[in-house]
């Protein structure tokens, strides 16, 4: 199935994503998650943790890391996720080379300017 067909499963295209929030993007990104429950999954710019919540990532992956630049947000995430940590782009990621299996960064680029 092609990318456009996958998008259509999640979103009514006549609305072109407007008013839908981030969930359609998260669902689409979720289709590319690794099958291995031991995979290291990293969400950079995790915010409220909606990506992890929506896809139940903590139950699916033992090495889940939620990184965010807002310390108050990280404190909230830490109450729910063991792998929450403070991180500010464009600092180097706190992982050794070739140790991350999946990196999610949706809705991050607009904060780099």
Report on this model:
This protein is α/β, with parallel strands linked by helices and 113 residues long. Helices cover 31% and strands 15% of the residues. The protein has five helices and four strands. The chain has helices at residues 3-10, 23-30, 50-54, 57-60, 71-80; strands at 40-44, 63-68, 84-86, 102-104. A four-stranded parallel beta sheet has the order 3-2-1-4. The longest helix has 10 residues, at 71-80. It is globular and about 40 Å long.
Approximately how much beta-strand content do the residues carry? Answer: 15-25%
**Overall average pLDDT:** 86
Q: What about the largest sheet?
A: 4 strands, parallel
Low-confidence stretches: none
- Helix percent reads 25-40%
List the topology elements.
Layout: H1 3-10, H2 23-30, E1 40-44, H3 50-54, H4 57-60, E2 63-68, H5 71-80, E3 84-86, E4 102-104
Parallel strand pairs: 1-2, 1-4, 2-3
Can you summarize this structure?
Helix content is 31%, strand content 15%. The protein is built from 5 helices and 4 strands; from the N terminus they run H-H-E-H-H-E-H-E-E. Helix 5 links the parallel strand 2 and strand 3.
Keywords:
4-stranded parallel β-sheet, 15% strand, globular, 5 helices, single chain, 113 residues, alpha/beta, 4 strands
């Amino acid at each position: 199935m092609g990318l456009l067909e996958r998008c259509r499963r999640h979103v009514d295209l006549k609305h072109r994503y407007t008013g839908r929030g981030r969930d359609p993007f998260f669902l689409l990104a979720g289709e590319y998650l690794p099958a291995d429950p031991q995979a290291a999954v990293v969400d950079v710019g995790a915010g409220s943790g909606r990506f992890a919540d929506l896809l139940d990532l903590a139950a699916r992956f033992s090495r889940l890391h939620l990184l965010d630049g807002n310390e108050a947000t990280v404190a909230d995430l830490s109450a729910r996720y063991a792998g929450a940590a403070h991180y500010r782009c464009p600092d180097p990621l706190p992982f050794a080379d070739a140790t991350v299996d999946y990196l999610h960064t949706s809705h991050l680029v607009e904060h780099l300017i």
